[in-house]
Amino acid sequence: MPIENAAEVSSWSPDSWRRRPALQQPEYPDRAALEGVLAELRQLPPLVTSWEIVLLRQQLAEAAGGARFVLQAGDCAERFVDCRSARIANMLKVLLQMSLVLVAGAQKPVIRIGRFAGQYAKPRSAGEETRDGLELPSYRGDIINRPEFTAAARAADPQLLLRGYERSALTLNFIRALVKGGFADLHHPEYFDLDWVEHSPLADEYHRMAASIGESLRFMEHVLGVRAGETDRIDFFTTHEALHLAYEEAQTRRVPRRPGWFNLTTHFPWVGLRTNDAAGAHIEYLRGIENPVGVKVGPGFTAEQVARWMEALDPERQPGRLTLIHRFGAGRIAEALPRLIEAVRAAGGRPLWICDPMHGNTRLTGGGVKTRRFEDIYAEVEQAFAIHQAMGQTLGGAHIELTGENVTECIGGAGGPSEEGLGEAYESEVDPRLNYEQSLELAFLIARKMKNGR
Ligand code: PEP
Ligand code: CO
Question: Which of 266, 323, 356 to mutate to test the pocket of ligand 1 (most atoms within 8 A of CB)?
């Protein structure tokens, strides 16, 4: 493919995305206020560090080689009101439990990457929303505007960027303190038991498995005299959609003693389906940072686009640098994924492969409620494992929208709601998430799949 603007291609800078078409960016009525906030963001200390980013990149390289499995999961969108200790702890608990289940099934380490501490900006299919003849900007996530349908609430407010940054820091601070304080200690999986796991049909299976992990640890320590060290404490990394580019740019920095630029708002930024155009601003932004980066891929991709992603984002084909997060839907993956794998091979790519079984399976009920069926979600993951294996490679992870709360947003699973039950506890302003039990059930199914696949 011809590169028309070779000079531009080589001259990346944190703001070079501004020379490309940038989709999904909010319009700020008060530009000066926005500039003031961005200047302040540039001065604030970072949320994550370059050595954590480098560590994650190494671990993702191992996942690409089949030696680790990635669990990338959390809310579709975080909300400011949910920046509460119980909510954050519940999210950690469900991620910890799922990862224990996955470790037991996969017999390899699991990398936990939370869609948290910054997952506040959302792409929307329409820029405006109309109700009763009144047209207002769409709600784009708490870091941009507010969900209430009034002109004041829907105006993009730059102060929310600061509030979001601060809440990300609060969230991360609490997570780091919990992990350091022993909350995630594998000797004590009871610390991350959720209260109502007792009532779940999966409780017994989970407890048996957690107990056996505890026993193995004690065996290593007491009988073999080995201190489990790194393996007895669990770490988390963070991830969010790098959607609001001025915000991401403000925390894109150089660090002492390491070459290159790092996005220090999150370890693992990804670009979503609506902004993944290889010639667009979002890919341009990701191109120049040292973080591992992800790209969501849907059924409409072309081989040419795939080749351009490889050239822009991973010209040296370094394992761990680029992750393709495919989200085709249970009905389309059988056709689309083999085609994607072929396109990547034709371009000489070596990405990490992650399956997002959520975003291709969203549908509306007869009553107009946005939902997903558990069976579609599992059907997509199951096919993803089979297709990768049949084509001689491995699926390296799963990307899931979930919550530690007992919501009723997705239909099905062993104890999940039916379509009629969706109204009981539907909270999400954006996409429907698996609740705690559905998440754990999915982890068990994936674990079983990996165990049988060995
Ligand atoms: C998301 O991950 O919340 C999302 C919007 O996904 P996608 O870009 O794949 O539609
Ligand atoms: Co979503």
Answer: 356
The sign one gets for the Cα dihedral 335, 338, 341, 345 is: negative
Counting ligand 1 atoms within 8 A of each CB, the residue from 327, 354, 377 with the most, and so the one to mutate, is 327
Q: What is the pLDDT along the chain (454 residues), one digit of tens a residue?
A: 444 454 445 699 999 999 999 999 999 999 999 999 999 999 999 999 999 999 999 999 999 999 999 999 999 999 999 999 999 999 999 999 899 899 888 999 999 999 999 999 999 999 999 999 999 999 999 999 999 999 999 999 999 999 999 999 999 999 999 988 877 777 777 777 766 555 677 778 888 877 777 777 776 666 666 555 554 455 899 999 999 999 999 999 999 999 999 999 999 999 999 999 999 999 999 999 999 999 999 999 999 999 999 999 999 999 999 999 999 999 999 999 999 999 999 999 999 999 999 999 999 999 999 999 999 999 999 999 999 999 999 999 999 999 999 999 999 998 889 999 999 999 998 999 999 999 999 999 999 999 988 7
State whether CATH 3.20.20.70 applies to domain 6-123+162-184+235-453. yes
Residue 159 CB coordination number (10 Å): 11
pTM: 0.94
398-to-10, 39, 352 alpha-carbon distances in Å: 33, 36, 11
- SS3 for 268-320 is EEEECHHHCCCCCHHHHHHHCECCCEEEEECCCCCHHHHHHHHHHHCCCCCCC
Q: How far apart are CA 287 and CA 265, in angstroms?
A: 16
Please report, for the chain, the start and end positions of each structural domain, with discontinuous segments joined by +. 6-123+162-184+235-453
Separation CA 160–CA 146 (nearest Å): 9
Q: What is the CB < 6 Å shell around ligand 1?
A: 76, 123, 241, 272-274, 296, 327, 359, 431
Ligand 1 geometric centre to CA of 64 (Å): 22
Q: How many residues does the chain have?
A: 454
* Residue showing tokens 């495919």: 326
Tell me which residue has its CA closest to atom 3 in ligand 1. 76
Distances from the Cα of 313 to the Cαs of 225, 284, 292, 420, in angstroms?
45, 8, 10, 45
Measured between alpha carbons, how far is residue 115 from residues 93, 224, 417 in Å? 14, 37, 24
